[in-house]
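Internal ticket - ligand job 465, zinc ion:
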Amino acid sequence: MLKVIRGGTVVTASDTIKADVLIDGEQIAAVGAIGAVDAETIDAAGCFVLPGLIDNHTHMSMPFGGTTSADDYDTGTQAAAAGGVTCIVDFGLQMEPNGLQSSLEQWLGRAEGTAHVDYGFHMAITKADDQTFKDMQAMVDQGVSSFKVFLAYKDALMVTDDLFVTALERSVEVGGIVQVHAENGWVIDHLVRRALGEGNTAPIYHALTRPESVEAEATSRAIRLAEMAGAPVYIVHVSCEASAREIIAARARGVHVFGETCIQYLFLDINDLKRPAPEGARYVCSPPLRDASNQDFMWDALSFGHLQSISTDHCPFNDEQKALGKDDFSKIPNGLSAIQHRLALMWEHGVKTGRMSPSKLVDVTSTAIAKQFGMHPQKGTIAPGADADLVIFDPNREHRFSLETAFSNVGYDIFDGQRTSGSARQTLSRGTVVFDNGAILTKPGHGRFVKRGPFNAALHGDTKA
Ligand SMILES: [Zn+2]
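stdout (structure tokens):
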């Protein structure tokens, strides 16, 4: 079954060219001037054809603070497809000591038969022990080649530095990469207890008890320990200039560190936490939203390649769930609903303003991520043999952010009232149109598990790590 996307402007991380894209079944067969063929035609005149975005930081159906994130793999990947996302890498959490296998199976079971776009998993190590470190090899063998540790969430998810270093050392042996949630959990605990003791319970204190320094310190520590272990390391959700500067300094001295930011740190700020209830709690995430004075630096860091990618940390909780913390900010489930919004916002405020080229946008939202997480060139590019994961972006298809246009199950839109002049018109996953002009066409289960390859240092111009 052939399809041909005609008349669009094809954008990859390196090129922007007028070209047609021929799709044979699930893969791209050719890119260029395609002559007459017996194929279903999709007209992309006036539009840009991009590799489907990859969101490597999502939390669907995730247990947190006594509740579960509001999107499952069905609604969450509908929202993904509506925003041009064709692959997510979601976080599985180690739920019990003595290994990772049972937790992986739990997460595979949740996603099986429900997703609309492809999905992979990272595995978070939360109860590190001998069997857990041993199981890291089995994870890589099964296509789960990235791990996560938390230096925050004391007494819940946090691991101590000795166990973090063990995970780093082991990641090198097994061909994986460790991702780090870099905030100092001990110091946050101290600041939270003091704030609550003084009767400060409102959502804004979530941000005030997680200042930039506790993130920058943990970022620096994570990098220094990775440097010592000779391991690559990936810092998730970098929120502020102070942390980004730690990454920039480390890369300048040759450390193999990657930095990811998320759209909330470019488009929202600490004042959103001061909105009247119930809205303020909707903006509670960790690291917290920062002073807006960080944003220009974060944009530049992304545009200049000091930070390599941008995802969303999609982890939605509805108002009822957020109300668990109405009298105590530390009990507000952490997370935002953002998976649908990255492309439209980045185009509007990045490409249209001249902050980044279309190719740079493709790189930071798709290609770099595919390379970092063992999916390139199957995903993250438009080339013969790659999966036909594509988004047709119409720069003149206005999007108004509202509950009516949002596919997430969270019950509100954190960008409500904003608009962008362009948005995704169609999203194809392995050649199948998932999203078409406001409608989801696939049934749950179209999306498949992606078995990812090991971390490949050579793709990043570094063979030391
Ligand atoms: Zn996260």
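Auto-summary: Residues 57, 59, 313, 315 surround zinc ion (CB under 6 Å). The CA atoms of residues 256 and 461 lie 10 Å apart.
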